[in-house]
Amino acid sequence: MKKLDRTGASSTSPRRDEGRRRPLHERIAEDLRRAIADGEFPRGAQLPTEAALAEHYAAARGTVRAALQALTTEGLVAARRGTPRVVLGTSMSQSFSQLLSFAQWAISAGHAPGGRFVERTIRAATENEAIGLQIGVGDEIVHTVRVRSLDGTPILVERSAYPIWASEAIMALPVDCPSLTAALEERIGLVLASGTHTFDLVRAGQLDARLLGIDVDDPLLRRRGVIRMADGTPSEYTEDRFVEGSASFTVHNSVGHNPVTRDLPSS
Amino acid sequence: MKKLDRTGASSTSPRRDEGRRRPLHERIAEDLRRAIADGEFPRGAQLPTEAALAEHYAAARGTVRAALQALTTEGLVAARRGTPRVVLGTSMSQSFSQLLSFAQWAISAGHAPGGRFVERTIRAATENEAIGLQIGVGDEIVHTVRVRSLDGTPILVERSAYPIWASEAIMALPVDCPSLTAALEERIGLVLASGTHTFDLVRAGQLDARLLGIDVDDPLLRRRGVIRMADGTPSEYTEDRFVEGSASFTVHNSVGHNPVTRDLPSS
DNA sequence: GAGTGGTCTAGACCACAAT
DNA sequence: TTGTGGTCTAGACCACTCG
After folding, report:
1. Does position B86 have pLDDT exceeding 80, yes or no?
2. Identity of the residue in A62, A254, A266 whose CB atom sits nearest the CB atom of B194
3. Which residues, including other chains, have CB under 8 Å from residue A48's CB and lie 6 or more apart?
4. Nearest CB to B265: which of A86, A246, A257?
């Protein structure tokens, strides 16, 4: 347990919101994640006890438990009464923003993301879009279609609906825009906080086939979902269609924490 | 907020492990889930404050926070400093066991689950199976193939690998077994605690095509994953292949809680 | 300024696992 | 029996939102 240090947050240059001291339980969680990823606690190993961690960080037990609970919900460790926690895996979840942003995910995976607008229009919301964005059917939205690529190869078509208050910022973007998430955060301070994602299988339509260079009947892995801001207001309703073999998605769940739902197919 | 009562756990007949009094924070969370599902707190509504809930349940604030954190990670509510929590959705996650068990999910959705063994053999583990079960390549496992149906219609083929210590119980099961999860819990006390699931898209092979009555090239939605016991020991490695249009899966994530990973395709 | 949720402390008792 | 994690309490201070 030598590597666990409390040094974190080297406040060399407090840029923007960054330099702000992070909560202790987050730093403890991060230390443990790193220690696990570095192989200090390999799969199957026992983590230090709550008491040991509390003493090491000079923290109360509740603070340590908050950190450990985070690791538990991430599927990294398992807990049982009577024995120290056990390491389940060595590196699982990526950062939150990496799931919400194709571009951030691609970069972290060592690939070059691309995004090109095929369509940008203002029109009335369909029923699915209205439900997702929590507005009325027929209310105006910004509708976009983008082809997104990895290292130059197109792998998905993205259809998105945005609330009308985002129209100006979206229309002002260049046609080639690898990360809309980053652009909107920079331009209008839009910060994402939570999301809901549904996965199923669809056939390519004529548009998908043409944009991706595949057959009209070829299957695509579809991810649909709503992205929300911190107060729960939806900021985006998106449908991604991935080419066969281009991506997969992994989820963790446990007794005390269940983010996944199985559903009968909807429209 | 009238409906929120602390009565729960009417210990009329403490059968098996059931009558055991549940933790207060779980009962609070359950009350709130029910109140939200019943429309008492519709989408967009504000939940009672932590202080109000603490007084209502005669509980400490920390206990109330534990309950509210559960709802947050389930994607039901969002929290911001300075204002009461907001309801995001009215019913999202199902119980944990419903994701791990096809049968329990089907029943809760009002359908009749079916399961028929097509194969039960003991053989050496493939590489994928060995990694999933954390054993050596070539170690003996129990391999099963089952066709599973909903209301009589076959909708998926399930291939599973179990550790050799489960072989006796599995071989003893009848050919028609709607819920293997329930059977194993009853017979050898196997209780599941956590899981990891990966979703992608594959083409049916000859076996799938024959069992499901589809074409060899038809696409299937694949769910692969490991199910674990409370101490982290893997008890099952499973690959499900769903017929197009027969099922979809939904996930929630948020800034403080990120169960989902996006991956490049693996074998 | 009043009230909210976020963080943290310092205890306590319990159920359970290992010895 | 000892030590673990699970639960719960009763405070405290802070950052933030809202009127």
Report:
1. yes
2. A254
3. A1, A4, A56, A84
4. A246
**Considering only alpha carbons, which residue of chain A is nearest residue B226?**
A252
CB contact under 8 A, A73 and B257: yes
Using pLDDT thresholds of 50, 70 and 90, give the confidence band for residue A250: low
Using CA atoms, how far apart are residues A168 and A183, in angstroms rounded to an integer? 13
Other C-beta atoms closer than 10 Å to the C-beta of A126 total 15
Element (H, E) at A156: strand A153-163
What digits encode the pLDDT tens for the residues A38-96?
889 987 889 999 999 999 999 999 999 999 988 887 777 888 888 899 887 665 434 44
In this structure, are residues B54 and B60 in contact, taking their beta carbons and an 8 Å threshold? yes
For strand D, list residues 18-37 of chain B whose Cβ lies within 7 Å of it: 23-26
Q: Which two tokens stand for residue A196?
A: 């809901």
* Three-class DSSP category at B122: strand
Using a CB–CB cutoff of 8 Å, tell me whether B110 touches chain A.
no
Tokens of B173: 């099961």
Residue of B95, B75, B99, B132 lying closest to B258 (CA atoms): B75
CA of B136 to C1' of D17 (A): 57
CB-based contact A133:A233 (threshold 8 Å): no
The verdict on A86 touching B (C-beta cutoff 8 Å) is yes
Residue A251: pLDDT band by 50, 70, 90 thresholds? low
Residue B157 tokens read as 């083929």
Alpha helices in chain A (DSSP H): 24-37, 50-57, 61-73, 96-100, 102-108, 127-133, 167-171, 180-188, 206-212
Contact A217, A199 (CB under 8 A): no
Q: Which CA distances in Å does A13 have to A18, A21, A157, B25?
A: 9, 12, 40, 41
- State whether residue A221 sits within 8 Å of chain B by CB: yes
Tokens of B70: 């559960």
**Cβ within 8 Å, pair A247-B231:** no
Asked whether residue A16, judged by its CB, lies under 7 Å from any atom of the DNA or RNA strand D, the reply is no
